[in-house]
Every structure is written in structure tokens, then in C-alpha cells.
């Protein structure tokens, strides 16, 4: 398997004038390949550290840490006449919104396309190896991209990430078209490009903590206090929150509810922390324990639970899952692509019995309605309780 060239050809863009010139060239492209590097593994928040852009023949590495005015880049990424091709676009879209304050449709996500083509391994290195027989070294993926100067090897790595994307997208579109799935991916990509960033919404931090949905109200109060403390320390120290206190340690604290330093020291990993840090943790635990019953948080439940116990037989969800699994196997796709478990629960709660009624199910894609709507209604009728 051939390696990618050790020295990828690229042009560094470190001034506003250089960015304007690059943007003038890119404005004439129908599609551009795009990848972004951030520093959320090393610092607090999401900072855009490098933007890699290619029109298929040339590649530019744009340094946002050296260019204050990125309006020429915003003009290109915000241009709805230019398709942006990315691989695994969620983080990139978040960085674009955070630094540029814009959405960037239309996009084509080759990672998503790989999954809809039935590829079990959809990472960029795996996809390039399968499609082009090239070896892409991902060793710099989790490095600190805020460091300056960036080593030549890291810059070459960054350029390689966009080198193949336009060719890859063209091939994937042909394959998706042949399978009748291109419109599926296009709709998913459009939703990705326009989806709100839930991380930026105001509200309790515990709503974004995995496992919070099954916690009791007192545990949620302790969790919220710990997360607020962690967020404050992370911002103060300019460190990612998970490096201040990792989720596993938080879960242990909530389970054990330590009220003394001795009890806290028994939790794995906290013995090495400073006395001041441990005092902050104990203060957060105490705050959660002392919160009045009337003010304890309540985790919002899904549609099925909000509406009370459905008048559907429990078989309705089971039947939908069995149908979904059979359909996914026949298509060679992961089950979640055909229909997620949360969507199955929403369908069971809404119980649409006609294709027209499917429009009332929030989140159900248009392609899912076209492709599976009639089948879903048949399955739901089987789960309807006898009168």
C-alpha cells in the first residue's frame, strides 16, 4: 500500500491579503474540500487553529491564529453555490459557527456517505485505504494544533486530509446514486449543516452528561453542582473540562457521595489532586445534598414518557425494532441509519397509521417516509391493541 507523499504540496496563508487571494481562486470552484483543526483537547472551549481548503488541484493551509479578519473565508464557506466536502463534519461545523458565526450549506460528508454505502469502517484512513489504496497516517489527529510554529510534518498531515476528498466524494456520489441512496445522504448532510449546536444552548449542564437520564433527582443535583464547579475551574485554568475531572470520576463521586476528605480520597484518581481541588469537589457535593427538595432538578423525559404510558401494546416497539433490523440487514446498513431507537419510540408514541400521518412525527426524515413509510404504518397496525 503506497504512502501519501511525505511532503504534500500546499500554500500557507498567514495574512489577510493572502487569504483574499486564495478566496478569489476558491470562489470559482463548484466544490471545495475542507477540514479544520481545533484545540479542544488541550484548552478550554473550541478554538479554530487551522483551516485546510482544496479545490482539487491546489491546497491552502489557512492560519486563523495569525489572521484576525477571516471574512474572505466566511464568504466562501457561507456561499450556497459552493459545495463544501468534509469527512466527519460535526466538529468542523461547530468550529465554523464558533469562529465565523455562520452556517455553511451545502455540505457533503464523506464519512456519512461511507456509512450509507455500508462500510463498516468509515474513518478517513480506512476509507482512503479501501478506495485508493493509500496509507494515511493519523498520528497527529490529537496533537496540539494551537502550538506555533507547526512542524512541517504536521502541516503535510493537514494537507493530506483534504487532498483526496473531492475525488472521493465524486466516487461516492456515483455509488450512492446507483443504490438509490444519494438523496438520503443529501438530506442528512443538509440537516447536519443547519442543525443547532446544543452545546451552546443555555441550560443545566447535566442534560449533556451521559447517564444523567437514569439518575434520581438528588443525584442530578449533585451532578449539576460538580459540573458547574468543573466548568468554572476549566475556564480558569484554560483546560478542557474532561481533563479537570473525568466523567468516570464524576460518576463515582455521585454514587459514593463523599462528605469528608478521607471518603473522597478513596475514589480512584482523586488522591493525587490538590487539597484545594478536593475541597471544591466536597463543596459541590454538599451543595447538591443540601438543595431543598422543591428545587431538585427533573430530567426531561422523551415523548413516549411525557405522554404517559401509551395505549399501544409493548409489541409495537418490539415489532418496529424487528422490522428495522431486518430492513437494515437487507440493505447492508447499520440499524441506526434505517431508524434510531429514539425514533422507534417516537413512532410508537405517535402511532401514525397512514403515510400522511408520518408528517406529525418530529425528526422523521423525508427519505425515511418515502422509503419506509408504508412499511412502518403496516408494522404499527400490527402493534395496535384490540378493542
TrEMBL record:
This is Ribonuclease D. Signal peptide: none annotated. Residues 216-295, 310-387 form the HRDC domain. It is an enzyme of class 3 (hydrolase). Its EC number is 3.1.13.5. The keyword Hydrolase applies. It comes from candidate division TA06 bacterium ADurb.Bin417. One of its GO terms (biological process) is nucleobase-containing compound metabolic process. InterPro entries: 3'-5'_exonuclease_dom, HRDC-like_sf, HRDC_dom, HRDC_dom_sf, RNase_D-like, RNaseH-like_sf, RNaseH_sf. Pfam families: DNA_pol_A_exo1, HRDC. Gene3D superfamilies: HRDC domain, Ribonuclease H-like superfamily/Ribonuclease H. Coiled coil: none annotated. GO terms for molecular function: 3'-5' exonuclease activity; nucleic acid binding; nucleotide binding; ribonuclease D activity. Keywords: Hydrolase.
Amino acid at each position: 500500500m503506497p504512502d501519501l507523499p511525505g511532503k504534500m504540496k500546499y500554500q500557507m496563508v498567514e495574512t489577510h491579503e493572502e487569504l483574499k487571494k486564495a478566496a478569489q481562486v476558491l470562489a470559482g470552484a463548484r466544490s471545495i474540500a475542507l477540514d479544520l483543526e481545533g484545540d479542544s483537547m488541550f484548552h478550554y472551549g473550541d478554538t479554530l487553529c487551522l483551516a485546510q481548503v482544496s479545490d482539487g488541484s491546489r491546497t491552502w493551509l489557512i492560519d486563523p491564529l495569525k489572521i484576525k479578519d477571516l471574512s474572505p473565508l466566511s464568504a466562501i464557506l457561507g456561499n450556497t453555490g459552493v459545495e463544501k466536502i468534509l469527512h466527519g463534519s460535526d466538529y468542523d461545523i461547530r468550529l465554523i459557527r464558533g469562529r465565523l458565526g455562520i452556517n455553511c450549506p451545502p455540505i457533503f460528508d464523506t464519512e456519512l456517505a461511507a456509512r450509507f454505502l455500508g462500510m463498516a469502517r468509515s474513518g478517513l484512513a480506512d476509507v482512503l485505504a479501501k478506495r485508493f489504496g493509500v496509507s494515511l497516517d493519523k498520528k497527529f489527529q490529537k496533537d496540539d494544533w494551537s502550538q506555533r510554529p507547526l512542524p512541517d510534518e504536521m502541516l503535510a498531515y493537514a494537507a493530506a486530509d483534504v487532498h483526496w476528498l473531492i475525488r472521493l466524494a465524486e466516487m461516492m456520489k456515483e455509488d450512492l446514486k446507483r443504490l438509490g441512496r444519494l438523496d438520503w445522504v443529501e438530506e442528512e448532510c443538509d440537516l447536519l449543516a443547519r442543525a443547532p449546536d446544543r452545546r451552546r444552548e443555555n441550560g443545566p449542564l447535566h442534560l449533556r452528561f451521559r447517564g444523567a437520564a437514569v439518575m434520581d433527582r438528588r443525584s442530578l443535583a449533585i451532578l449539576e453542582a460538580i459540573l458547574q464547579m468543573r466548568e468554572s475551574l476549566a475556564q480558569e485554568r484554560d483546560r478542557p473540562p474532561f481533563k479537570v475531572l473525568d466523567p468516570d470520576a464524576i460518576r463515582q463521586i455521585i454514587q459514593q457521595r463523599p462528605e469528608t476528605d478521607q471518603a473522597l480520597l478513596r475514589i480512584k484518581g482523586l488522591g493525587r489532586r490538590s487539597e484545594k481541588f478536593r475541597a471544591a469537589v466536597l463543596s459541590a457535593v454538599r451543595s447538591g445534598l443540601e438543595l431543598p427538595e422543591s428545587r431538585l432538578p427533573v430530567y426531561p423525559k422523551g415523548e413516549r414518557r411525557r405522554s404517559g404510558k401509551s395505549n399501544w401494546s409493548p409489541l409495537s416497539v418490539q415489532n418496529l425494532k424487528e422490522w428495522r433490523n431486518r430492513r437494515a440487514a437487507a440493505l447492508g446498513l447499520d440499524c441506526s441509519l434505517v431508524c434510531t431507537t429514539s425514533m422507534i419510540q417516537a413512532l410508537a408514541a405517535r402511532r401514525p397509521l397512514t403515510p400522511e400521518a408520518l408528517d406529525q412525527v418530529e425528526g422523521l426524515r423525508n427519505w425515511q417516509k418515502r422509503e419506509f413509510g408504508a412499511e412502518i404504518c403496516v408494522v404499527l397496525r400490527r402493534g395496535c391493541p384490540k378493542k
